[in-house]
Design a protein that fits this description.
Layout (H helix, E strand, L loop, with lengths): L27 H20 L4 H21 L8 H15 L36 E3 L5 E4 L5 E3 L4 E7 L8 E7 L6 E5 L9 E5 L8 E13 L15 E4 L7 E2 L10 E8 L6 E9 L9 E2 L7 E6 L4 E6 L12 E3 L3 E2 L6 E4 L6 E4 L10 E6 L5 E3 L4 E2 L9 E3 L6 E6 L4 E7 L8
Parallel strand pairs: 4-6, 13-15, 16-18, 17-19, 18-20, 19-21, 22-25
Antiparallel strand pairs: 1-2, 2-3, 4-8, 5-6, 5-7, 7-8, 8-12, 9-10, 9-11, 11-12, 14-15, 20-24, 21-23, 24-25
Helix pairs in contact: 1-3, 2-3
C-alpha cells in the first residue's frame, strides 16, 4: 500500500497533452498521474491518517483534479467518459477523509451521520445566535435571537415586524404582512373584535419597525406577572385572557360579551421583579357566526338561528318567521295604539270613541297570533285594510263590535290578519 505522503507521478514539462494524438486515448503519463492520486487517496482512507501533511496533500490533489475537470470540458464527449468517472472516484475518496480540525466531530462531513449525543450538562455555552446545546431540561435549546432561547418541541414563535413598539410580555395581535417577504406584522392588542387576530405574548421587546419573536405556545419568562399594570392581582395558576381595557393587556377576568373571549396564558410564577413567567397557549373562542355550521352573514336585531335541513346549517332569520305566539301578560290600551313585538293579549279600554290599532306587518309575522278583547262599548278597528273577518275572505278594517266582552283571535297568513275565533260576551260557545 503506498504511503499517503508519497509524491504522485509527475507530468514533466513541456506539458504533456491529455490525449495522445497517435492513439486517441489518454496519454500514459496522465494515466500514471491519476493512478498515483487514487492510490494515495485510498491509503489515507484505509489507514485513517489525519495528519496535517496528509490533509494538505489531499487538498492540493483535490485542487489539481478540479483544474483537470475544467480542462475536460474542452474535449470531445466520446473521449471524456471513462476519464471523468476516474476523476470523480478519486474526489469522492478525498471527501470521506476526516478533517483533523474537526476532532471528534470529523464524521459530520459524511453524507450519512449516524447520531450525535449532546452533553446534557454543558458549561460555558455561548449565547451567539444559532448556538445549539442541551438547555439543561429535557430538550435542545436554539439561540433564536439575542434574547430568546427556543426549547425544541416545547415552544413555538411567530417572527414578526412590529408596526408599533411592543414590550416584553404584552399581548400581540396580527396587523398585516410585509409584502412578498412573508414576514407577518404585529402590534400590541387593541380594539379586537375577532379573537383569531390574537397571535400571542411578546417573548422580547421589539422596537417599532423592528423584528422579533412572539410566543404562541410555551413558557415566556422575565417580566412582571403580578397583574398590577392592569389593576389586578394575579396568582400562580390564574388563566389570563385578552384585556380590552389596556393596549397589549391581559386580564384574569373573562371579558363580557361582545368582547372576544381569547384564552392566552396561565400564570406560572407571579412575580413583579422581572422574574415572572407565564405559559402561553392561545385559544380564541369563535363567534357564533364563525362556527362551521352557521350561516349568518348579516344578523339583524331580534334575529334567531333556525336550522335548515336542506342546507344542513343554522341560519339567522327574523324571530317572526318561527314565533307563533310571543306570549306575555295581557296589556290594556286606553287610546289608539300600535301592537308591540312582545304583545299577544290586548284589551281595548278606550272610552268615548272607536279605538284604532296599528297591527304588525303581516308578512313579517307569518303564524303570529293576536287576541283582542273589548272592555268598552266601542268598536276596535285596524288602521289598515288588512283584517279578514271570520265569515269572508275579503280584507277590511273591522276587528271587534261595540260590545263589552266581545273578543277575537287572529293569525297572520303572511299577507293579512285572519280572524280565526271571535265571540260576543253574550254568546254561548258549544264544543
Amino acid at each position: 500500500m503506498p504511503s499517503p505522503n508519497a509524491t504522485p507521478t509527475p507530468i514533466t514539462p513541456p506539458r504533456v497533452p491529455l490525449i495522445d494524438p497517435r492513439t486517441g486515448l489518454i496519454d500514459r503519463a496522465w494515466y500514471l498521474f491519476f493512478l498515483s492520486l487514487q492510490d494515495i487517496a485510498t491509503a489515507v482512507v484505509d489507514d485513517g491518517d489525519t495528519g496535517a501533511d496528509a490533509i494538505s496533500l489531499l487538498a492540493s490533489y483535490d485542487a489539481a483534479l478540479m483544474s483537470v475537470n475544467q480542462e475536460l470540458q474542452t474535449l470531445p464527449s466520446h473521449q471524456v467518459g471513462d476519464l471523468q468517472a476516474q476523476i470523480d472516484e478519486v474526489r469522492q475518496q478525498f471527501a470521506t477523509v476526516p478533517r483533523q480540525e474537526l476532532g471528534t466531530m470529523a464524521a459530520l462531513q459524511q453524507a450519512n451521520l449516524p447520531w450525535v449525543t449532546f452533553d446534557t450538562t454543558p458549561e460555558g455555552v455561548p449565547t451567539d445566535i444559532g448556538t445549539v446545546a442541551w438547555d439543561g431540561g429535557t430538550t435542545l435549546g436554539i439561540q433564536m435571537t439575542a434574547n430568546v432561547l427556543q426549547q425544541v418541541g416545547e415552544t413555538q414563535y411567530y417572527y414578526i415586524k412590529a408596526s408599533a413598539a411592543i414590550a416584553k410580555g404584552e399581548l400581540v395581535m396580527f396587523d398585516g404582512s410585509v409584502g412578498a417577504s412573508g414576514v407577518l406584522k404585529g402590534k400590541p392588542s387593541t380594539g379586537v373584535t375577532n379573537g383569531q387576530l390574537i397571535m400571542g405574548v411578546a417573548a422580547e421587546a421589539i422596537a417599532n419597525n423592528g423584528f422579533g419573536l412572539v410566543s404562541s405556545f410555551g413558557l415566556v419568562r422575565g417580566f412582571n406577572t403580578t397583574g398590577t399594570p392592569y389593576g389586578e392581582v394575579w396568582a400562580d395558576g390564574d388563566i389570563l385572557y385578552y384585556n380590552p381595557s389596556y393596549v397589549g393587556g391581559l386580564t384574569k377576568n373573562l371579558p363580557a360579551a361582545p368582547t372576544p373571549h381569547v384564552v392566552v396564558a396561565a400564570v406560572v410564577n407571579a412575580s413583579s421583579a422581572g422574574a415572572g413567567s407565564v405559559f402561553v397557549r392561545v385559544q380564541a373562542e369563535p363567534l357564533i357566526s364563525q362556527l362551521s355550521d352557521v350561516y349568518a352573514p348579516t344578523p339583524a336585531n331580534n334575529d334567531v338561528l333556525l336550522y335548515d335541513g336542506v342546507q344542513l346549517r343554522w341560519e339567522n332569520v327574523p324571530a317572526s318567521t318561527i314565533i307563533a305566539s310571543v306570549g306575555g301578560a295581557p296589556v290594556t290600551k286606553t287610546a289608539d295604539f300600535t301592537v308591540a313585538d312582545n304583545e299577544t293579549w290586548l284589551i281595548n279600554n278606550k272610552s268615548g270613541s272607536t279605538c284604532t290599532v296599528t297591527l304588525p306587518t303581516a308578512s313579517a309575522w307569518t303564524g303570529r297570533e293576536l287576541t283582542f278583547k273589548n272592555m268598552q262599548a266601542q268598536t276596535l278597528v285596524s288602521a289598515s285594510s288588512n283584517v279578514v273577518p271570520i265569515d269572508s275572505t275579503t280584507a277590511g278594517t273591522a276587528i271587534l263590535l261595540a260590545v263589552v266582552g266581545n273578543w277575537a283571535t287572529m293569525v297572520s297568513d303572511g299577507t293579512n290578519w285572519v280572524i280565526m275565533q271571535q265571540a260576543a260576551n253574550n254568546c254561548l260557545l258549544l264544543e
